[in-house]
Each structure stands twice: as C-alpha cells, then as structure tokens.
Amino acid sequence: MTIVKIALEIVVIITSILLTLLILMHKGKGGGLSDMFGSGIGSNAGTSGVAEKNLNRLTIIVALIWVAIIIALDLISKYKLA
C-alpha cells in the first residue's frame, strides 16, 4: 500500500465518523430513533433556522467528500495507480 492510499483510507474513516455525528445532530421530525433520547425536550430547544441550514450544508459537503474519496479509492484499487 502506498502512502496516498493509506492517507485516503484515514480520511475516509475520519469523514465517516464526522458524517455520522452530523447526521445525528439533525433535528428529528418525530416518531423515529431521533426522538428516543430527546422526547421530553420541547420544540423551542431545537436549533434555529440558520443553524439548521448550516448543518445541512456541512452535512452535504462532508458527504460529497466522503463519496469522492470512496470513488478515488476504488479507481486506485481497480487500476492499481498507487
């Protein structure tokens, strides 16, 4: 394994953990697993509209980075570039 492939694998692990945490931070829409831990909290305790939009943007950016690295790792493995 080359250093590039190892570095990409480390970045995939980090972005996977970050993506999981970002998804868990989203406000639940009711009735699902997201209400399991915070069902007693009132609706005023949620994030504001701007914070929710920023969280959505950050989640999408991290997800796109994750997908791009997964594709890059696949191409590296397929064509034995590194």
Q: In short, what is this structure?
A:
This protein is mostly helical. Helix content is 71%, strand content 0%.
What would the average pLDDT be, to the nearest integer?
A: 83
Ends distance: 7 Å
Order of helices and strands: HHH
In angstroms, what is the radius of gyration? 17 Å
State the domain count. 1
Oligomer: single chain
Helix-residue proportion: over 70%
The share of residues in extended strands comes to under 5%
Low-pLDDT segments, ≥5 res: none
Main sheet overview:
none
- Globally, the shape reads elongated
Number of strands: 0
Plain-language structure description:
The chain has 82 residues and is mostly helical. The protein has one domain (1-79). It is built from three helices and no strands. It has helices at 3-25, 35-38, 49-79. It is elongated, with a radius of gyration of 17 Å. The termini are close together. Keywords: Cell membrane, Membrane, Protein transport, Translocation, Transmembrane, Transmembrane helix, Transport. It is a multi-pass membrane protein. It is found in: Cell membrane; Membrane.
